[in-house]
Each structure stands twice: as C-alpha cells, then as structure tokens.
Amino acid sequence: MILGKVVGSIVSTRKNEKLIGQKLLIVRPLENMEAKGEFVAIDNVGAGIGETVLVAEGSAARIGCDLAEAPVDAAIVGIVDEN
Asked: In this model, does residue 52 exceed pLDDT 80?
C-alpha cells in the first residue's frame, strides 16, 4: 500500500477497452519512496484532487477493483480522513 496525494487527473480519448469508464488520477507518494515519483492510478472510490489516498499496486489493484483482465498497475482503494 502507498499513501499518496492526488495531484491531477488524466484525460484519455483512446484507451484499452477494459479501461473505458474508469477515472484516472495522478498520485504523488507521501512516503519516502526514493525510486518512485508521481504515477497514474485508477480511482475506485471517487477521490478528488488534493485528497490523501491509499493506493494498492500490482495484482492486488486489479483484483480489488474487479478488473482482473485490465492493464491496471495501481488503484486508489481508500480516502484518508486523518493521518
């Protein structure tokens, strides 16, 4: 799990058919992750720009969002109220 802040959104007119209807957001990690900068994640919970979120990566992201066959590497699975 990654703790991050939503810093933007992605607009894509063409994408994989399994991603149609999915909201894509740009997340900046809050943890000390030297090798990882900002990344794109599927929004599974209705997060917005400026919110602190929990992000699952890899197969946990795909399975947790019922997108097991989609090309997903990161998914927002929670919005943090307080940290």
From this structure: yes
Task: Supply the pTM of this predicted model.
Answer: 0.86
Alpha carbon distance 4, 75 (integer Å):
12
Residue 56 C-beta-side C-alpha neighbours within 13 Å: 16
CATH 3.40.50.300 fits 2-79, yes or no: no
For 10-48, write each residue's pLDDT tens digit.
Answer: 998 888 888 888 899 999 998 766 657 899 999 989 999
Query: Domain spans of the chain?
Result: 2-79
- What does the block give as tokens for 72? 């997903």
- Report how far residue 22's alpha carbon sits from residue 20's, in angstroms, rounded to the nearest whole number: 6
For residues 32 and 72, the answer to whether their CB atoms sit within 8 Å is no
